[in-house]
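Quick sanity check, Antitoxin:
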Amino acid sequence: MARLNIDITDEEHQRIKALAAMQGKSIKGYVMEKLLSPPMTDDEQQAWDELKAVITERVNAANKGAVSSKTFEEVTEETLRSLGRE
C-alpha cells in the first residue's frame, strides 16, 4: 500500500478535522472523498461560503470577548420561541 504525506499548518489540520467531523468521517475518508469526488455545485459553494462567513464572524467576535452570558439552554429556548417551536 502506498502512503501519501503532506505538510499542512495546524490551522489547516484543524479545519480539515472539523469538516470531517461535521460529516461523521475520518480525516482520511473525508480527504479521499474530496479528492476523488466531483467539485461542488454553485449552490453548494454558495452555502459553504455563507457558512464560512457566519462561523468566521462568530469566531472573531468570540476572540474579541464578545460572548453571551446565557446558557446553551437559554439560547435554545429563545431561538425556539422566536421560531414558534416551543
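Posting the structure with no commentary besides this: The chain has two domains: 1-37, 40-85.
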